[in-house]
Structure formats: structure tokens, C-alpha cells
Amino acid sequence: MMFSTKAEYGVRVMVELARRAGEDPIPLAEIAEHDGLPLAYLEHLVARLRKAGLVDSRRGSRGGYLLGRPSEQITMAEIVEALEGSIAPIECISQAADGSIVCSRESDPARACPTKLLWTRVRSSIVSTLQETTLSDLLPGPARDALGAPANAEAGSAATSGATADSAATGDATRLAPAAARARPQAQPLTTGA
Fold first, then answer.
1. Is 133 inside a domain boundary?
2. Which structural domain range is residue 129 located in?
3. Is the pTM of this model over 0.85?
4. 174 and 168 Cβ atoms separated by less than 8 Å
5. Helix (H), strand (E), coil (C) string for the chain
6. Would you say residue 148 has pLDDT above 70?
7. Sign of CA dihedral 46, 52, 58, 59
8. Residues 33, 82, 54: CA angle, nearest 5 degrees
9. Is residue 109 in some structural domain?
10. Which residues does 135 contact at the CB level (< 8 Å), separation at least 6?
11. CA dihedral 57, 61, 62, 67 (to 10 degrees)
12. CA 92 to chain centre
């Protein structure tokens, strides 16, 4: 599954707003220039983020954008869903109003979709990761530390999770991975039952 540039650019805008939280509102043109992103496209994305309550805007000569709430209270799931809509690994899988996962190919109750379990699990993993990752998790070290995150928590958890030395040094892989993903069991070979 690939997210579009809506999610990529929108998350980059949100990270920049979080990085500069507490300052004056940030003009979108400044973010576009800093990150080399198209201003007109960012205006479209920020309108969606504003509609979802994730950003606030201020008008006037000192106007711009601010986070709608603190970065530690904004999840990646909220951002991605505001920009991309419902998260689905393939087009036939969607979430019903009651929260259940439905396959558009299951119009006849007697014909169950043979791959629905797989795609439901894939969707669940993606959504869980996005829900467990906050905007503050994506901030660079000093900005994240200013929010009260432990300074060396990533390196310690990387060393105990069996991560590579490279990821332990940066902390990125461990910091962003949910605990369940860091302690994956070894895959078992398939058996035919014969």
C-alpha cells in the first residue's frame, strides 16, 4: 500500500508546525519554501487539516497556521484520515459505519471473500501503527525533548529489542515501531498436514 503525496506533504507540514509550536503563526509560504513543496497544493491540504480541527489559522499580516492541539495529542491516524480518507490496503475493503470491515465483493452471504482476513489484518496493523504514533514522536530530538520525552529512551529500547546497531544509534526505527512490532516471533514454515 502506498499513501499519496497528500499524506506525505500533510505530515511534513504538521511536523513543521509542531517543531515551531509556541511561536507566532507560521505562513504556509514559509513552510512551502523551507521544504520545497508546492504552495497551492499545501493550501488544499491545510484546508482539510483545518476542517478536521488539526490546525488553526490566523489572518492578517502576522497570520499563518498553528497546531489545533498539542502535538502529543495528535495521532498520525487523524492526520492521514483527514488527508486520505478511510484507510484501506485495497479498494474492496472498507470500514462500515458500525466499525466492522466489509469487502465489496461479498454481496452474497454464501460467498465469503477468501482474502478478507489477510487484508483486515493488514489494515489493522497500519491503523494501529498510525494510532500509536503521535506528531510529537516525529519531532527531531531537541524539539521532542522540549516536550518532555525521555532523552535516551530510544537507544535503550533499541538495544533490548534486538535492533541493529545503526537503528540503536539513531533510535528512529525503535522509537516509531509499536512494542508488538519490535518483538516479532520468528515465522513458522507452512505445513501441508500430510
1. yes
2. 5-149
3. no
4. yes
5. CCCCHHHHHHHHHHHHHHHCCCCCCECHHHHHHHHCCCHHHHHHHHHHHHHCCCEEEECCCCCEEEECCCHHHCEHHHHHHHHHCCCCCCCCEEECCCCCEEECCCCCCCCCCCCHHHHHHHHHHHHHHHHHCEHHHHCCHHHHHHCCCCCCHHHHHHHHHCCCHHHHHHCHHHHHCCHHHHCCCCCCCCCCCC
6. no
7. positive
8. 70
9. yes
10. 14, 15, 18, 67, 71, 72, 74, 75, 76, 79
11. 10
12. 22
If you search the block for the grid coordinates 465483493, which residue do you land on?
105
Rounded Cα gap, residues 160 and 143, in angstroms:
25
Mean residue pLDDT across the chain: 78
Cell of 143: 524539539
What's the rounded Cα separation, in Å, for the pair 50 and 54? 6
Beta bridge partners of 103: 93
CATH number (domain holding residue 130): 1.10.10.10
pLDDT at 53: 97
Number of domains observed in the structure of the chain: 1
- Please check the confidence at residue 69 and state whether its pLDDT lies above 70: yes
Q: How many residues does the chain have?
A: 194
Residue 169 lies in a domain: no
Amino acid at 57: S
